[in-house]
Amino acid sequence: MKNKNTFYVTTPIYYPSAEPHIGTAYTTIAGDILSRWNTLLGKEVFFLAGTDEHGKKMEESAERARQSPKTFADHLTLKFKETWKLLNINYNRFIRTTDKDHEQVVQTILSEVHKKGDIYEGYYEGFYCTACESYYTEKDLKEGCCPIHEVKIEKLKEESYFFKLSKYQKKLLKFYKDNPDFISPESRKKEIINRVKEGLQDLSISRSSFSWGIPLPFDKKHVSWVWFDALPNYLTGIGYLENSKQFKKFWPADIQILGKDILWFHAVIWPAILFSLGLETPKKLFAHGWLTIKGAKIGKSAGNAVGINNLVEKTSVDSLRYVLFRETPFGQDGEFSESVFIDRHNNELADKLGNLVSRVSTLAEMYGLQKTTPIKSDKTVKAVNNYLENLEFDKALNEIFSFIDQLNEYIQNKKPWETKDKKVLYQLSNGIKDVSILLSPFIPRTAEKISKTFNFDISLESLKNPLKVSKIKKSEILFRKIDKSPSPIDDMPKQKAQKSEVKTKHQETKQITTIAPEKPTKENSPKVSYDDFSKLDLKIGKILSVKNHPNADKLYVLEVDLGNNDKRTIVAGLRNHYQPEQLQGKKAVFITNLAPATLRGVESNGMLLAAVNDDDSHVTILTPDEDISEGSKIR
Ligand code: MSP
User: Fold this and answer.
1) Can you list the residues of the chain whose pLDDT is less than 50?
2) Could you tell me the distance, in angstroms and rounded to a whole number, from the CA of residue 216 to the centre of ligand 1?
């Protein structure tokens, strides 16, 4: 019996017939989250990922690309590896079904099952969907088409070997009954059991009409049906034939994650093969739902694949890892929308988590920390642990973010920027430690950065123990907000709404309504005389206080001292770019003779000047190179 302190998690091995997309990334990130979480819990983890390279589908895709199947698979498998690296997927092995040890495992298994009398020779006549690599009966078809891919399906007639699946019907039904946790979610389990109750047909497990596969050891004219080759990867991955010590340590798998499309193969055919081999079955299968766009499954063949690189460039790897699991329960289908994606990146990662870390670290650098009783996180930790055990990622994240909300309320109420209370700053820092450790399986890079700022380890020990007091340096910005509107300093005065063609980093050119003026270019920028320029009264002002605008979440209301007893209220669109404490006390350049303008109910008597980069993602105020008194003129 396997040691309880190990954890073996697998994902399906994908067909490298096209590049990975967010659908395949979804399952793989889920595997990585579980792997990281269980490592954190102190278990010895094995996480297996890989590619499924044989079969008709791969052979045909390679033909279309005018390459040999192996060259074609080599190229795309590399893409999978690169993408998983980009997404910070920490697998222990990447298995390819073309790996030598795997070919040996499949042949050994085929021989054993054959010897046992569970394989016999016959003749197959029926329907085969190459996209599914699956057999269908006439009644499964939808108007002559594959029920999943909705493409015309080919009728096959060839010599074949069969696996006696029907023999295992009763054993399977008893097994499901005795192991109620084997298939999750519950609704899918019922579907499987009902189908098995209807009866099982023996399975054609070899093909003789093409050659891209593993030859049957007892009849070299045949190659193994791709699923009989693919499923045993879960055994090869941990050293079934070559490393029996490791195999014993990790088998049976603790959790096998897969999409609902391939549950039948994993919940029926896979345990039957294992029964025949006399091996234990995996402890749990979890069939998650599909990521969809406008209701259609995301996938290369459906033509709506969302580029992973593109998404990650716009936001961050951690944003993708987080958002995919934030909303939809893992077992259900979830609609993917770039707009929701950016909203969550902005509102949750940048605003809630990023701001908290930025504010607390800035203040901790200024005032230091003093040890006191921490804010308790035990309930959150316990709940997160339970949710992750059941793959309820959305609930786990919800729980963690409630705790972050609690910390944000605490800082608002305690106002440490006014009180300079080192104990409050300690409590907040300790809370940040706890949420970062809990979030680390989801957003490992960010958690790592936060741990460096506040000087703690990402470990169970450090989750249990209070934060050590240390010298803290202000954190770098963790998540840059993406502006969905064309200008980050919209809501600024004197700009009339106009229709224009605007291209932003994350939008295709389209008609949008903007309140920003057309950007000046070298060509269209009007020339002004010195007289024009001298009409502007530009001065150095000192920012005395910074408050959030009551009605606009991008604006601050500043109290500014412009010298000579001229104190004014000036509204500035800097909230996405600065924390209040980063502005307070700073000197900057202001236009002081603009006509007053009321911005969302607050009168602004002037304008702060800032530098803005090309795509509006970076905004910085203009401060004098050396200290100079407020009221100094800019010439
Ligand atoms: N090669 C087989 C699996 C063999 S496992 C022993 C296969 N490959 S596949 O490339 O078609 O991958 C299917 C899997 O990709 C799904 O089960 C799921 O894990 C993942 N997904 C593909 N598209 C997806 C979505 N749109 N949404 C969620 N998961 C998706 O089947």
Assistant:
1) 486-520
2) 26
